[in-house]
């Protein structure tokens, strides 16, 4: 599954022309050929619930108009109206809509969007149906979210965060997912259950209702015996019970629902990719011999106002996390049949004690969409901070290092950015496991450390002081 936001200011990712009238009308917003009279519309929420509306003029209604009705139905206060947005979603693609978009028309163009931005087969595309969802606005700052105190609003944000935790979209460490699982249990079932009631409820609803699926289900397979699985499940139950007891005994009186919701969301805020829009792509696996060459690894790419995060789909951990001040980027279109769309990420690294520039290739038909998304986030964040380059929100796992004196003018960037550190947490980057291209600038020309790459592509000029472009010389061209 991949996500994004189309037709953003400052990019050229626009929707394709409206499709012909013989396209099937799919999804929750298209139910009748007669669109002038009142039609039933379902707006889905996280947590298996939906808002049921009766809408007139469905064919031309905009997101802005629909938003007023949904906020009224959900009793969302004016102070929180920017916290949510409409998304058009399916198992193949997720797109955040702008206020001027008309959901019904976009549903009619869904197949065109899937052909353009996914690698799905024709059969999958023909059977895919989008639905309209009301969920967190990816451009809503976490600092504002911390100030929200309406229980209904917090519950909506909680249900979305919980879904992302349980599905592994937000990778987290055991101390996080165990604590979040206990909070989730207390929110759903109350904080005053005894051990027997707790165990009975857990076994009725299953651990996967409170812990990430890959944790609750375990590795499985032929080598995992039933007894081993049972023992592991019992251990998880006991650990979850221990965390739950901390909640129930931490205060003289049971905590209020808003306290638990705030605590859950605040824990999620420590994850750097909380609130990201997600895209799907692949990266090259490190070569481990002749037979390993050419293989790729599936990755999720999360992009938010803080930076870019590349995550291993299978292993549920971060491969690379960068603030915008730590990266340069660009995208390239296929030059020949069989080539891929590529998003290029450039960042500072180290090889054998030598500071180097590293390039990561992300193969994805959404490369152009991701590039425009990054540019929009950079400009939005720069404007909100008044051009300040410092990010003090505390979500990133790497710590900037002091610039070296002899690096102060390299690449015209005013000093090298902080090196990435290898750590054991799933949240921290694993640069050592990436197949990157590395090179150094010796003051006159760029010296190649790995095989040649394609022609110059880092030509983007900085539009804000929070990131910089790499100036590539002709010495990097394939000769």
Automatic annotation (TrEMBL):
GO cellular component terms given for this protein: plasma membrane
FERM domain boundaries: 39-385
GO BP annotations, alphabetical order: anterior/posterior pattern specification; negative regulation of canonical Wnt signaling pathway
Classification via InterPro entries: Band_41_domain, FERM/acyl-CoA-bd_prot_sf, FERM_2, FERM_central, FERM_domain, KRIT1/FRMD8, KRIT1_FRMD8_FERM_C, PH-like_dom_sf
Coiled coil: none
Region (Disordered): 1-30, 388-424
Highest taxon above the source species: Eukaryota
Database matches in CDD domains: FERM_B-lobe
Gene3D superfamilies documented for this protein: 1.20.80.10, Phosphatidylinositol 3-kinase Catalytic Subunit, Chain A, domain 1, Pleckstrin-homology domain (PH domain)/Phosphotyrosine-binding domain (PTB)
The protein's name: FERM domain-containing protein 8
Organism: Seriola dumerili (Greater amberjack)
